[in-house]
From TrEMBL:
This is GTPase HflX. It comes from Lutimonas vermicola. PROSITE patterns: G_HFLX. Monomer. Associates with the 50S ribosomal subunit. GTPase that associates with the 50S ribosomal subunit and may have a role during protein synthesis or ribosome biogenesis. Keywords: Cytoplasm, GTP-binding, Magnesium, Metal-binding, Nucleotide-binding. SUPFAM superfamilies: P-loop containing nucleoside triphosphate hydrolases. The keyword Acetylation does not apply. The lineage of its organism: Bacteria, Pseudomonadati, Bacteroidota, Flavobacteriia, Flavobacteriales.
Length: 407
């Protein structure tokens, strides 16, 4: 199922909506993110189409007039791919495909595609493949009948619905096979996690592209792949880190994104187990991003979503505001008396004040890239790890003083 696309740039058109739930500004932010996702997947956005609607059209997502507009544009420019900024239901996908006569993707499909391109280990590949099958199953239409040929179902079934039924069965078989495979790897991984012993475990979490891997690299002097694309990291990496005299395990995790496809939430459970089993979370935030507060909310939502009911999802957390080197804010001219001061005008100092108060000082402002303020970062992490370490190993806390004197 996993297809690695070649590196030829694909021209793409994006389609989004402005509704009661998402105003013009939000819609633009979402499309900006969709454009970044498209770029990550190897596409180039030629044009965006946006329509104002009460709610998305149940049959075709946008209205038929707008869809006509899209069709004549893509025919004119010979564009073969249109991406919608929401998950399209199977009927919508089918209707739109028929009307536009080109490849139609939605946000979920695009994210799955990126994950497929980037999955390196057999674990990640199995997870992605499972997610793709789960996405595909309800969307199987006649165009998927080639699957039957793969299986060589000789003269067993006639054309039409029966073929689709066969394809569905093939996909279902595959899903159960992949699930079995994952279960096996999951149990191996949980044994591995147990073998790590009682050492304090710290996990870097956060929205995609905020700098988690970069921070991991500077702190642990390791070389985790980091780049300016979304979802650079798909596998968790664990490193032993020592700050002063306390060793602990630091885990780099897969980045979160708004509306993480449900299929992926499910199949990345084991990655997220790392987060659940961590003693301390370092929630990394890209403060130079204009929507960083939304990102924080998305991450917190996903964390509470993956936490089984009855389990407490709150655990010690330090907010790590990264990319302070790239932080910018709007300013108001002194003679401008009409513009109201809002969050766009907050300086770094304003943000610090507000977050220190909110987090009771459990936050730090750094630049992982420029290595700014890493000392403060290490200090605050050390203090928190030490608290956990002391409760876990109550009899050897004498170790600290000795070493601290040498720092
Ligand atoms: N300006 C600036 N850029 C940074 C900083 N830290 C990281 N970056 C850049 O941000 C981009 C993303 O960094 P990564 O470390 O890959 O981010 P990540 O959070 O691991 O991303 P995913 O693995 O995709 O979730 C890279 O281009 C980094 O060079 C920083 O402090 N300042
Ligand atoms: Mg990363």
């Amino acid at each position: 199922m996993i297809e690695k696309r070649d590196s030829n740039i694909e021209n793409v058109v994006l389609v989004g909506v402005i509704t009661k739930e998402q105003n013009e500004e939000k819609s633009k932010e979402y499309l900006d993110e969709l454009e970044f996702l498209t770029y990550t997947a190897g596409g180039e956005v030629v044009k965006r189409f946006v329509q104002k609607l009460e709610y998305p059209n149940p049959k075709t997502f946008i209205g038929s007039g707008k869809l006509d507009e899209v069709r004549s544009f893509i025919q004119d420019k010979e564009i073969k791919t249109v991406i919608f900024d929401d998950e399209l239901n199977p009927a919508q996908l089918r209707n739109i495909e028929k009307l536009l006569d080109c490849k139609v993707l939605d946000r979920t499909n695009l994210i799955l595609d990126i994950f497929a391109q980037r999955a390196e280990t057999s674990y990640a590949r199995t997870q992605v493949e499972l997610a793709q099958c789960q996405y595909l199953l309800p969307r199987l239409t006649r165009m998927w009948t080639h699957l039957e040929r793969q299986k060589g179902g000789i003269g067993l079934r006639g054309p039409g619905e029966t073929e689709i039924e066969t394809d569905r069965r093939i996909i279902r078989d595959k899903i159960s096979l992949l699930k079995k495979r994952l279960k096996k790897i999951d149990s191996q991984m949980s044994i591995q996690r147990k073998n790590r012993g009682k050492m304090v475990r710290v996990a870097l979490i956060g929205y995609t592209n905020v700098g988690k891997s970069t921070l991991m690299n500077v702190i642990s002097k390791s070389e985790v792949f980091a780049e300016n694309k979304l979802f650079a990291t798909l596998d968790t990496t664990v490193r032993k880190v020592v700050i002063r005299n306390i060793p602990f395990l630091l885990t780099d995790t897969v980045g979160f994104i708004r509306k993480l496809p449900t299929q992926l939430v499910e199949s990345f459970k084991s990655t997220l187990d790392e987060v659940r089993e961590a003693d301390l979370l370092l929630h990394v935030v890209d403060i130079s991003h204009s929507n960083f507060e939304d990102h924080i909310a998305s991450v917190n939502n996903i964390i509470s979503e993956i936490t089984p009911q009855g389990e407490d999802s709150s655990k010690p957390t330090i907010m790590v505001f990264n990319k302070i080197d790239a932080f910018k804010h709007e300013s108001i001219e002194e003679d401008d008396l009409t513009t109201e001061r809002s969050k766009e005008h907050y300086t770094l100092e304003d943000w610090k004040k507000s977050w220190y108060a909110k987090m009771e000082n459990k936050c730090v402002f750094i630049s992982a890239l420029k290595k700014d303020n890493l000392e403060d970062f290490k200090k605050i992490v050390f203090e928190e790890v030490k608290k956990i370490h002391i409760t876990r190993f109550p009899y050897n806390d004498f170790l600290y003083q000795e070493y601290e004197e040498n720092v």
